[in-house]
Amino acid sequence: MLEIRNLHAAINGNEILKGINLTVKKGEIHAIMGPNGSGKSTLAKVLAGHPQYEVTAGEVIYEGKNLLELAPDERAREGVFMAFQYPIEIPGVSNAQFLRLAYNEKRKHLGEEELDPLEFKDLLKERAKVVEMDASFMTRSVNEGFSGGEKKRNEILQMAVLEPKLAVLDETDSGLDIDALRVVAGGVNQLLTPDNAIIVVTHYQRLLNYIVPDYVHVLAGGRIAREGGKELALELESKGYDWITNPNVAGSANLNAAS
Amino acid sequence: MVTEIAKTENNYQAAFRAVRASSPTVPWLELVRGSAMERFEQLGFPAVHNEEWKYTNLAPLAKQEFVPATRPAGVVIDAERFVFPETATAHLVVVNGFFSEELSVKTGLENVIAIDLLSAVADARYNKVARSYLARNAGYHNNGLSALNTAFLQSGVFLWIPRNVKVETPIQVTFLADAGRADSAAFPRLLVVAEENSSATLIENFVSTHDQQYFTNAVAEIVIKDGARLEHYRMQRESSKAFHTSITSAELGRNSSYDTTSINLGGRLSRHDISVVLDHEGAECWVDGLYLAGSDQHTDTHSVIDHQQPHCNSHQLYKGILDGNARAVFNGKIFVREGAQKTDAMQTNKNLLLSPQARVDTKPQLEIYADDVKCAHGAAVGQLDQEELFYLQARGINPELGRSLLTYGFAEEVIEKIKIDSIRAQLDEVVLRQLNTQLE
What we know:
heterodimer, A: alpha/beta, Rossmann fold, six-stranded mixed β-sheet, B: alpha/beta, 2 domains, eleven-stranded mixed β-sheet, ten-stranded mixed β-sheet
């Protein structure tokens, strides 16, 4: 589904990604971990097409297409979804309006008929159950006045509505308390099918207790420093990122791990 | 330019003599009209050297020889299409400044007096009220536009809401520009008196039946007595070639409330002066607005909120969206007079520039002469937020649609507080049409 080859990317002339290679197949869950500044979020944003990031080398093939040639909205309509670390507030536009517009843009792209507000309301009601979201959130402006947890739930609601083939969750666990984490992760698990794939970008292992990855990739200094199965995340939890970024002091500190 | 202005004044003066002959009125109003005309001759149209007119140049208006409209005789106009469904039984129509009994529907206004202003002045039942408040708040001594309107006072609407009357049906006054010829000038006049503990909703709707050049010079005076409440919407949808100047003056009684929203969409050049005087304790006002201007449009709002007594609150939010080479002006003054303690005044003006050629001059001003008050003001001018646009794009919404959606959202903060569904729906449509987009 996704093949990243030797990906280099920079922001304001500073190279952040320095040669990423990653292959994701249908039905797989991949975790991207790493210390702050390792390039995790940059990778997510580059995949979504954020205009501030410049790809300086390498390629990304998604479903046989050159992903990097597609505009961000084209990528989304083709089934790439990024759950934002910091979801944006859109004052004056209701959640329902926004979701219906996004949903219908995708339907149009696929040559399917658009849903009118009433039809969409039914669909939205159904999908909102995935993240246990109250109907009152649908008439409120997108993310405006939402708590951190509500914003993250809203991201997963969007995922539930848009049914992406490839979802990239950028630090979806940050700022969540344990109950919200369980709801959000539960939502993501419900959306997983044999035909889609998920890349979970996270600093901490705790999210991976709920969304169990098939593969774990650890980024350091813009490269993948280590790869393994889900047990790698547990190892990181006990040993800390120093174990990878600075092997000489292995075991000396696990300050980066979640408490 | 001075000679041009003088020539135009002569033009108005000739028309004024005709008005005196054709529309005689009671002696006191004859005197008012006469002195207003004298005042206009002295003042002329405001010029850019006047600080309040620094950014709005009326020279093109002053130069043009507009012909004051006369009372339309037997014209057939489809005024129905300008009626908001909510006001179907309470709808007053004013054509070129002249109140039309035939086109108006008053079945929903049993407890309200809604008649021609000149009739009210001549009627012993209403004469006292009319005389007390007409030309009081919208004074003509220092304002050429108000003087011109007052000199040509031959009709208009008198709306009197008696004590304790709660009017459920919103009352619409449609000011229709229906020129049989181009270059006509109309002087719509409205006097609203809401007596003690009454409540009503008023919609002023400025529209036209054609796309010619004309001049609307409107004045509305609004008196809200103790404990009364008025919700007031003002829609300005003049033709794209029109000049529109308009004055709204409101005075608020003790514990009264005035909630007004002005929507400025039309006109080649439009100027709205709104002043709210809080001269009794416990009064509260909301003075909000939205202006939308595209290429070759100039829109100017000057607002004065005058806290003269303690314990009054004022809230103001004005938003503007400018495209093409549009120009806008917002000037908002808040006065807190000596002794007006415990005043709570909040003012915000936000502008969205959709084009590099668009320009806005915004100037919020606070003048405070009391020490125990809570006042804040702010102004912002900006473009669409790139992160917001990316967020929409990341959900599959193309950039063009995304820009429209964000612009719509920007306007919505003002639109969504409008309590009349059909106005809100019309505005959503107007905003989106301006943006060449459909949401539904």
